[in-house]
Amino acid sequence: MNSPQPSSDRVLLLKTFFGLLLRDLRVLSREIGPFLLRVGMQPLLFLFVFTFVMPHMAGGSPLSSIGPGFGSVLLPGLMAVAIMFSGIAAVALPLSTEFGVTREIDDRVMCPAPVAIVAIEKVVFSAVQSIIAALMVIPMAIYIPATPVYPDLHRWWLLAIVMVLSSLLAGTLGLAIGSSVSPKNIGLVFSIIVVPITFLGCVYYPWAYLDKIRWLQIAVLFNPIVYISEGLRSAVTPQVHSMPVWIVLPALIVFLYFLGRLGLRGFLRRVIS
Amino acid sequence: MRRIVIVEIEALTKIYEGKQRVTAVDGIDLSVNPGEIFGLLGPNGAGKTTTISIATTRTLPTSGSVRIADVDVVRHPAEARRFIGVVPQFNTLDRSLTIEENLYYHCRYFGFSHGQARQRSAELLGQFLLTERSKAYPSQLSGGLAQRVQIARAIAHRPKVLFLDEPSAGLDPQSRMAMWTAVQGLRKEGITVVLTTHYMEEADALSDRVAIVDHGRMLAIGSPQKLKETFGAQTIISLTLRHTDGAEAVAAALRTYPGVQNVELAQDCLRVFTSGAEGLLPELIQAASPLGLRDIAISEPSLETVFIQLTGRDLRE
After folding, report:
1. CA of A30: which chain B residue's CA is closest?
2. On the CB side of A102, how many CA atoms lie within 13 Å of its CA?
3. Can you give the residue range of the structural domain that contains A111?
4. Between A19, A30, A110, which is nearest B108 by CB?
5. Cα dist. A239→A28, A39, B81 in Å?
6. Which residues of chain A have pLDDT under 50?
7. Among A16, A186, B133, B190, which is most buried by a count of CB atoms within 10 Å?
8. Closest partner CB to A112 (pick from B93, B95, B110)
9. Based on the number of CB atoms within 10 Å of its own CB, is B27 exposed (0-12), middle (13-18) or buried (19 or more)?
10. Domain assignment of residue A61, yes or no
């Protein structure tokens, strides 16, 4: 018969993980157009309005008065937003329907591997999408603004580490949201979680510039997006003042750990009763 | 040497703690032999689905154990899942994949290579008469067709035992018959089948053995034939009457007839429970004719009578 050879548990685990990845890749390949639009539209319009349209207006942008070119501030910030949005769109939205409405996740949960593998695969796959989304921002920042913004890629290793950690973090955030919010309320999540953590995530301004509003500067430290933005800032636009790397990296790891645990626990609770 | 058993449930209990403490499963012992079609019968809320959920690693028991092909499902759920196929109550097909892909990726999750998965899904599409619809999406399928895809998917990795939870809920009679044929076909492949149902004729027609459960307890187990014999499933002769004045007296008289076990008066109808209708009919007709006998109906022993006798007539939520 053509049954698979009896393989060791670890090999089977890898095959299962790979099978789950293949499935997601297949689904994404069917929706490549919508995917690109989804991740590209926001940074595209943002750069267009704030770094192309506004500078052409009389008097320039009121935002351009905050030190280095606003484009340089925006580039890492928009990469951070792209990473986070992808994490939520790739994990939270599908999980919420697969759990709540159709229970489609059941077949994957019944695969011959620990249930957590299904959640981990989702996070890993979403991280890949986050990285693609973030990289798409770079050419946009070069071609759209009135004054092109070139990323400084000398510290590429730092960029790579921050991108990987941030993308996984975004996936675990999506996992935590997707496994705890019912599909009915998932729209609300955007208003009460995603929008606030973006606007207060040092995306459109560097963290250091908040020093005039001390309470806010401290309060936003509980927002994981801050470390994504600041980490990317110190990697791609070192000319802009940013939080030291020795704070950013441990913070990303701590948030990754806690959101990962929270998300995984929520996932297991939904799957095993 | 141990007896070879494919599903072995021992002293299984499941209690849901909460505002209201609910004992869903209350000490079930059960073993299913290889190659058998086993029916788990019970009213809604009897504990059938919970039992199946525990056996398929989706629910953790409060106490007791379930072993599938000698693998403990609580201690080694991932390993146990290799031997388990599940067709849940609801359509859980992957909506983002075509029918063929649903089968293909299921095989990949179980470690099949690309070639093996392709071959196996083609084989299943043929076996379940799905080849024509292989490129359709689950949302385009009728209930019966979706059910067939679910069965095909559940056995794709060649499990030892297939669990079907209420397989004919919501199916039209044709689809139900087709599903029965499919399930009976699995026996030829050596797959053991455990199904839950509250359709008596389904359990009667399909199962080699059935267990009747209610309130989380097992009330009876055996072949449908044996249950009917043991639980004195009786022939019921219903005598419909024009007027019921004096029916009580007639009922009392009938109870003394040899072969009559009980007589109930229900609205305009006398229900006579007997071990056999032979020889009794003329006497019954004679006794009932003063009341204006309108109609006689005889129902042969069925699993339903056993079921009602064991689980009562109360309505369940």
Report:
1. B96
2. 15
3. 9-51+67-271
4. A19
5. 37, 27, 55
6. 1-5, 66-67
7. A16
8. B110
9. middle
10. no
What is the rounded distance in angstroms from the CA atom of residue A30 to the CA atom of residue A24?
A: 10
* CA-wise closest residue to B61 among B20, B31, B16: B16
Specify the pLDDT at position B276. 66
Q: Is residue A2, in this structure, part of any structural domain at all?
A: no
Bridge partners (DSSP) listed for residue B195: B39, B164
The answer for B16, left when phi > 0, alpha when psi is -120 to 50, beta otherwise, is: beta
Coil, helix or strand at residue B14:
strand
Q: How far is A256 from chain B (nearest CA, A)?
A: 26
Residue A11: list chain B partners with CB under 8 A: 111
Return residue ranges of chain B for CATH 3.40.50.300.
7-229
Residue B260: Cβ within 10 Å count: 20
User: Are the CB atoms for B272 and B235 separated by under 8 Å?
Assistant: no
**What ipTM describes this predicted complex?**
0.87
Strand partners, B217: B214
Residues of A in contact with B191 (CB under 8 A): none
CB contact under 8 A, B110 and A107: no
Q: Which residues partner with B271 through β-bridges?
A: B238, B264
Of the candidates A7, A22, A102, the beta carbon closest to that of B111 is on A7
**CA-to-CA separations, A195 to A50, A73, A85, A201, A220, in angstroms, rounded:** 19, 19, 10, 10, 14
pTM confidence score:
0.84
Strand partners, B26: B13
Q: Does domain B234-300 have CATH number 3.30.70.100?
A: yes
**Percent of chain B beyond pLDDT 70?**
96
